[in-house]
Fold G-protein coupled receptors family 1 profile domain-containing protein.
Amino acid sequence: MNGDFNADLLIAVFCIPFSYWQVLIFDDQRWVFGSAMCSLLSFLQGIAVFLSSWTLVVISFDRWMAIMFVLSPSMRLTRKRAVYLVLATWAFSITMALPLFLVAQITTTGGIKRCDEDWTAVEAFIPG
């Protein structure tokens, strides 16, 4: 339960306020927090969303294991396994969100600065 709370807390702190700030305060969705915050906030928002989603997947998998292997004590989730799962979930979420840190940048259109993603630099690394 605590892992999902942490993920939802990250969403409440990093996703909701800044998304609403852009939409409700400035109707043209301008970005006023600077270039560093653009990259960092995109990265933190990505971590929060991935972490929340994958924590629910891990919880669902644990519940499935508890139902399917109810008579197999060796299949139960121990504290050590739970710590590994939590660390793996965090590591996977950070890894998945890392490209957002690299592609988020300030773009100016019509004199209005916006925090957008520019994936053209990353396309060179994608085969095919």
Q: What stands out?
A: Residues 23 and 62 are 38 Å apart (CA to CA).
